[in-house]
Design brief:
two-stranded antiparallel ribbon; mainly alpha
Length: about 400
């Protein structure tokens, strides 16, 4: 079936307003993630005593199917449908986080997962894009009607999400959500007084986490003073960049994955550096910068305030998460336990990234529609001018 520009069906409208370059960039990153899963995950399966050393590769590919479905399906939604879907998703994610606290299994001192039978779901991953979407909508509504105090509702949603993350506890995700929400708050034009108050609260929260949560204390102490404890994973990660050099040791030739229990998730970037080289890492960073820059460029051309805020917020979410993951691998930040968007193994993480990418593609379609409308208005004005000349 061939779609022409004259096709006004929902499928035709989606195809001709879709940012195909951004979609292609997303697909390339997802394919690189599958390749890296082949490289990094077999040693993990062997260490766990699994009969199939490609167990995690197969699961990664299985989760890629609904992820691609989310990218395409969500990109077809209108802005109104996005807000409604975000509201439903946020409610389900909050219920899931409460269920994880009440009934979830404790892993390494945290309760973050809900057992759905076929996989362990981490509801907080889905809460992140939903929070950004709803906060962007509330900030946009406040800009239109300040008397509604919609920004206060956005603050309540943020505090609810952050409070549940701290209760799990998941300080890394709490910091990520705080940074992204603060960025959105700033973009929405809130006063410097509010920004100073919330910034002070964030610093105070981090200080409290350092004083009262032992594993946070340990990670920060080890980062500031490497001799204060075991830094095996981060030390091995930074060594992989030296051992891999510019062009890497070759696919399957790396050894860092044999020593990192999180090589297929948190330290995938280090495995990439050792086997495919620093050059490959720079290519991935370049893909991120190109994709995020393209979305930001689209945001600046948005006529709709909500679409502009939501695009900037979701780009901040994905970009900050990627920067934190790579910063940990390069020993620039304390260990956080955060995946690399589009690439790392993890069902909940992939679904969250697919959802965010789908929303971004849907919002850039609104930009294309606006551009088409302006072009149509320009053509109508030109035709009217010519008609007046001929009539005169």
């Amino acid at each position: 079936m061939r779609l022409t520009r004259a096709d006004r069906s929902p499928l035709g409208d989606w195809w001709w307003t879709l940012d195909k370059v951004s979609l292609l960039s997303i697909l390339v990153l997802l394919v690189i993630g599958v390749v890296m899963s082949f490289a990094a995950s077999p040693p993990i399966a062997r260490d766990l005593g699994l009969a199939n050393e490609f167990h995690f590769v197969q699961k990664h590919i299985i989760f890629l199917i609904p992820t691609l479905g989310l990218v395409v399906g969500v990109s077809m939604l209108s802005t109104r449908q996005l807000v409604r879907a975000g509201l439903v998703l946020f409610g389900l994610a909050i219920l899931g986080m409460l269920a994880a606290l009440a009934f979830g299994a404790e892993v390494k001192g945290a309760r973050r997962w809900v057992d759905l039978g076929f996989f362990q779901m981490q509801p907080s991953e889905l809460a992140k894009p939903a929070l950004v979407l709803l906060s962007a909508w509330l900030f946009a509504e406040h800009a239109k009607r300040p008397d509604l105090h919609a920004n206060l509702f956005a603050l309540v949603l943020f505090l609810l999400t952050a409070g549940l993350l701290v209760a799990q506890p998941d300080i890394g995700q709490t910091m990520l959500v705080t940074a992204v929400w603060g960025c959105l708050f700033f973009v929405a034009g809130m006063s410097w007084l509010w920004i100073a108050i919330l910034g002070s609260a964030a610093v105070g929260g981090l200080a409290a986490a350092y004083m009262f949560i032992p594993h946070v204390t340990s990670r920060i102490d080890r980062f500031l003073n490497p001799e204060a404890g075991d830094n095996h994973q981060t030390d091995r990660a930074i060594e992989s960049f030296v051992e891999g050099g510019w062009f890497g040791r070759g696919p399957g030739e790396g050894v860092v994955k044999e020593h990192l229990p999180d090589s297929h998730t948190d330290f995938l970037f280090a495995v990439m550096a050792e086997e495919f080289g620093i050059l490959m890492c720079l290519i991935v960073v370049g893909l991120y910068l190109f994709l995020f820059g393209r979305f930001i460029r689209a945001a600046l051309r948005q006529d709709d305030v909500f679409s502009r805020y939501a695009t900037i917020g979701l780009v901040a979410l994905l970009a900050t998460q990627a920067a934190i993951n790579m910063g940990v691998n390069l020993q620039l930040l304390p260990a956080k336990g955060m995946t690399l968007p589009f690439l790392s193994y993890g069902g909940s993480s992939l679904l969250s990234v697919g959802l965010s990418a789908g929303i971004l593609l849907a919002l850039t379609r609104q930009t294309a529609r606006g551009r088409q409308a302006r072009m149509g208005q320009g053509r109508n004005a030109t035709n009217a001018w010519r008609w007046n000349l001929q009539s005169g």
